[in-house]
Amino acid sequence: MDARQFANEYIGLLKQSGIDGQTDEKTKALFNKYQERFPELNANEWKIIINTLLDTEDIDEKRRLLIARYWLREYLAKKNPHAALDFVKEHSAAFNDEVGVVAVISDALGNLAKDDPVAAVEWMKKNAAEFPDAMKAQALHNVVHSTARRDPGLAFTLISELGLDYSHAHSAMHTIVTSVTTNEDRTATLAALREYRDANHQNKELSSAANRMIGYFSRGFQETGINGAKTWISSANLTPKELETFCDELSRNYDGGEHAEWIEWMGATLPPDLSRSPIMDMIGRWTSVDPEAAGKWLASAPEGPAKIAATRSYAYAIFRHDSETAMQWINTLPPGRDRDDTLKAIHMNWPKDDPEAAAAFAKEHGIKQAGH
């Protein structure tokens, strides 16, 4: 059976099923019989079948386009992305809704980039004027992600070649950094990120964003754990500032089970002036999910800057629920800035519906209030 006959017979079934898609068992069996052949069809056959569908006036246009987009994404874009992209260009008038065009182009470009990222980027550059929305959305993510898995250096080069604005460049950098899965890939991607950052040092906004991206390498250690992180960090030669960025991002988003190990490591690794914020964030997240475990660890933690930072965050986190215990911890802090700042933070976040208690707390601890 040639492609045109196949298309006509299958489209006949579509007409028979009606707009609501309801079919009897016999028709369902016929649908399944035809659909079993779908994976075997080549690009030319798919073009004939989809063209035949689009030319069929007996089926509602909206339904025709919906089915055509599904076939393009599920079969043609996966097996022959070049053919899928050519088809979209040839029928751009038919696929005149942004969602449909973006979906097909995104899938096709992502699959093309797996084998030929340069060709994917060239297509994007060449057709940016005709399909501007497709070039800025999921397609960009798919191309950059696929390229980064093969060559992170090339992925960063694509950002420059595509002339992306800050927002899309930021998104692309995030995609590249979060695509890595092994320490070897992390090291290669870190080198490429630094090179990209240095090449754009005159663009303060872009170079600053590149610096922040180093924090996202921490995402890959949620499952492998702290030992895997130590192995990579020891070989990555992170600067103190890069290490702080790594720890900041880790602490804000960590949801694993090694809070104590991370806190102790940060306290031993980061300079005291850089460890304060990530340790406070980490103990805060830990306290929100398991205050008993966090408190037990804190009670046995060795004295030092790490414990001071952890104590501040722990006391702040539990104050609303257990003010007595929180104050006991606050009173273990040495008199001075750490204790004062913790009390001020609690006062600043006092429930708005209890101003009298807030005022009494401020008076008791010598906190100056606005207007007083």
Features:
mainly alpha; 22 helices; 74% helix; 0% strand; elongated
Uncertain ranges = none
Number of beta-strand segments: 0
- Mean pLDDT, to the nearest integer, reads 87
Shape: elongated
Number of helices: 22
Tell me the strand percentage band: under 5%
Pairing-aware structural class of the strands and helices? Answer: mainly alpha
What sequence of helices (H) and strands (E) makes up the elements?
HHHHHHHHHHHHHHHHHHHHHH
Descriptive account of the structure:
The protein has 22 helices and no strands. The protein has 372 residues and is mostly helical. Helix 1 packs across helix 3 and helix 18 runs antiparallel to helix 19. The termini are far apart. The model has no long low-confidence stretch (mean pLDDT 87).
In short:
With 372 residues, this protein is mainly alpha-helical. The chain contains 22 helices and no strands. Helix content is 74%, strand content 0%.
List the helices and strands and how they pair.
Layout: H1 3-17, H2 25-35, H3 43-54, H4 61-79, H5 81-90, H6 98-115, H7 117-127, H8 132-136, H9 138-150, H10 152-161, H11 166-177, H12 183-199, H13 204-213, H14 221-236, H15 240-253, H16 259-269, H17 272-289, H18 291-300, H19 305-318, H20 323-330, H21 337-348, H22 355-364
Helix pairs in contact: 1-2, 1-3, 3-4, 4-5, 4-6, 5-6, 6-7, 6-9, 9-10, 9-11, 10-11, 10-12, 11-13, 12-13, 12-14, 15-17, 16-17, 16-19, 17-18, 17-19, 18-19, 19-20, 19-21
